[in-house]
Request: fold
Amino acid sequence: MFALLLAGNAVTGTALLMAPDIARLMGGQNDLVISAYEDRLAQMRVEIDRLHSRSYAQAGDINLQLQELSQQQDVLLEQHQLVRALVDKADRLGLANLDLDMSGPAEFSIVTTADGNPDLAATTDNVVRMMAETQQAMTGIATAATQRADNIIGELGRLGIQTEIPDMTLTGMGGPLLAATGSGESAALVEDANAVMDALMRYKAARDSLTLAPVHMPITGNFRQSSGFGNRKDPFTGGRAFHSGLDFAAPSGTSVFSAADGVVSFVGERSGYGKVVEVEHGNGLSTRYTHLSGYLARVGQKVSIGTPIAKVGSTGRSTGPHLHFEVRRADQALDPKPFLDAGKRLLAIL
Reply:
């Protein structure tokens, strides 16, 4: 027992004497562990900072792309407004049957992926597609206006009628040289819209010229062409004689209409013609309506296409109720049939 107690005391004393060294040993190990842990934390901080920097960079790229998309949206909205204005202008000019769907506003939205992140590629494709559609609409308006203007000019040209078209080649401009501002896309859009407007104004000029050409039927309803232009068998003498117009057999009292815009230049009787109304159209052409039973117009009256000017009759050298219709240039009779045929073709086109 004594030996055991002595040994225990010896161990205890030794431990007390060596406690500072053990403490320093344990402290040194803890310092190593803590130092290693702090090094690991520092590495993790560096990695986290790197990830944050990458995320910020990606976010910056996204924001930059979104800003570019926003600018494209502005151009798209401006483009749509211009196209809408051009469509309205085309409607007023009689181009209302164009196959253009511009009833709704141009919609712009950010496409997102399944995880809610913006799909910039899909969004960009949508914007590009919508801009292409509005550009196609502008091209469609310009093409339709150009084709129809060319048809009118061609038809009237074959009739010897010169169409007054405004000179779209005038390019006078000036001003001080200043640095460019704003979007280049927006400037190009305005130039495209101006080109479309030029085509519309050219079509308007051609269509206005058409209103002065006697290419519209002077009578409607139940009638038949009873005699043509040129040499024929005279209904009274039976011999060959020249017929200076077209005859349309119709019931007495049927309305007779002006074949074009113009001013009534004569109302009265002429030898062989009976009762007559004549209209000047201001382009070297006039029309004559004869064998009438009554007048609905007076000298000096401005008339338009389809204005009632007289009634069908059988006055003068006539075998029965009909309208004798003439087209004249410099008091020389022209065949009215090419004029009326051109009117039918243009009516089908327009």
User: Anything to note?
Assistant: The longest strand covers residues 285-295. DSSP finds four helices and twelve strands in the chain. Confidence is low (pLDDT under 50) at residues 22-27, 101-106.
